[in-house]
């Protein structure tokens, strides 16, 4: 597999991307990397590897850049070139930790949508208390959605969980303000009716408070609601760990107790660690494009590379295409 990697995107670039790529090279002997960015930031030992191709550029898309303008004007930016290499058939997938909006724009304008998909979705795996995690679609690609979009999110999520996460019959949940049928906005009510007719393991409405308990394997919602859920979970986790650290180091007695409980705290942290799950897939595009977390360290970036590899190896994009076409044919009959 050939993977195009933007090494200049993200808060910790280029170090996290370069180190993550080295982890991937050491872990997956069948992967070839096209590392795109300033070659001065790539160790000579990596550049000499027969499994590494370096494409030099010093242009990057910044976090404050306007996505559409940046993609159209910065043709030689590391992110744009990464996606272009996929479009040109020089790479099978791409990974970037850079500007989310720009990566989605580049994916749409350059790679294009999967046939039959009306709107792509930005879809991260989020942690659950049992360690299995759940897939949330959408978290910001589309702030407004139609019922048909949520149905397509469910189909794409179902394929991903089966192919990548190995879940035999993923439980599909619809994010709502209550679990009872008939609750929510007109969008959610209409989506509920359509999902109920689908050949999926649809379990009905799920509330945000139950997500970390593992209420569903796939949760679908509009991008506005999904982004609020994502930021709330991330913010709560960071605040909780910050509060615990402050309290456990506030006195000698607490420090001694923290020393005894350190293994337990580490277990909790690992369960809630986003880096284990990779990045957010841009589902609904014609090739695997993975948005690694902007704050990714080497481990998290390597997980995003793994996610792209598995999506390619398991033909997730083609399976999504076939699933959508099958549903459309069924509906036309």
From TrEMBL:
* EC code(s) of this entry: 2.3.1.274
Write down the Pfam families for this protein, in alphabetical order: FA_synthesis
Keyword list, A-Z: Acyltransferase, Cytoplasm, Lipid biosynthesis, Lipid metabolism, Phospholipid biosynthesis, Phospholipid metabolism, Transferase
Q: Name one GO molecular function term.
A: phosphate:acyl-[acyl carrier protein] acyltransferase activity
HAMAP family (alphabetical): PlsX
**What is this protein's function?**
Catalyzes the reversible formation of acyl-phosphate (acyl-PO(4)) from acyl-[acyl-carrier-protein] (acyl-ACP). This enzyme utilizes acyl-ACP as fatty acyl donor, but not acyl-CoA.
Q: What is this protein called?
A: Phosphate acyltransferase
Q: Which gene encodes it?
A: plsX
